[in-house]
Amino acid sequence: MARTQSNTFELGKIAPSFILPDTTDGQTKTLANLKGEHGTALFFICNHCPFVIHINEELVALANDYAEKGIAFIAISSNDVVNYPQDGPDQMKRVAQELGYPFPYLYDESQEVAKSYNAACTPDLYLFDAELNAVYHGQLDDSRPGNDMPVTGADFRYAIDNLLTGKEFDREQEPSMGCGIKWKQ
Question: Which residues are CB-contacts of 43 (< 8 A; sequence separation ≥ 6)?
Fold first, then answer.
């Protein structure tokens, strides 16, 4: 499994807007419709990546733990489905149902949304404040497939907790690591 680190996304930068189909309910969603009262967590994920599979349960737990605190969660898949059909919309809907995703799972067919966020890997994790300014772009935690470290979501939870309490994020933001986004040729 190839390891790709997330690219830089400048803190303070406004989240790029988007209009994408939600594979879980067939509706079209926008960032403006989905953003949270106090913040928005956005994940670039896919179905087949071992790094995403490794953290899926924690992504669900995060959303369940923080949704009532005004943090919205959004997942987007931008992979090329011609060469990776397991990441297509029908399979996205199935995975979202099987895992009980409590957040929309959007399909970025053109890959323009991933490009606008400078996304590089799955998972690629972002956190924005109530005004959609980037406050965190980094790893979920130190766990990776095969390193025997438990998946805790510690880094991302710390970022959300700081956002909710108005504290500055005072730790090094370690880049996320995962499979490279499968770009169209």
Answer: 59, 73, 74, 75, 76, 123, 124, 125, 126
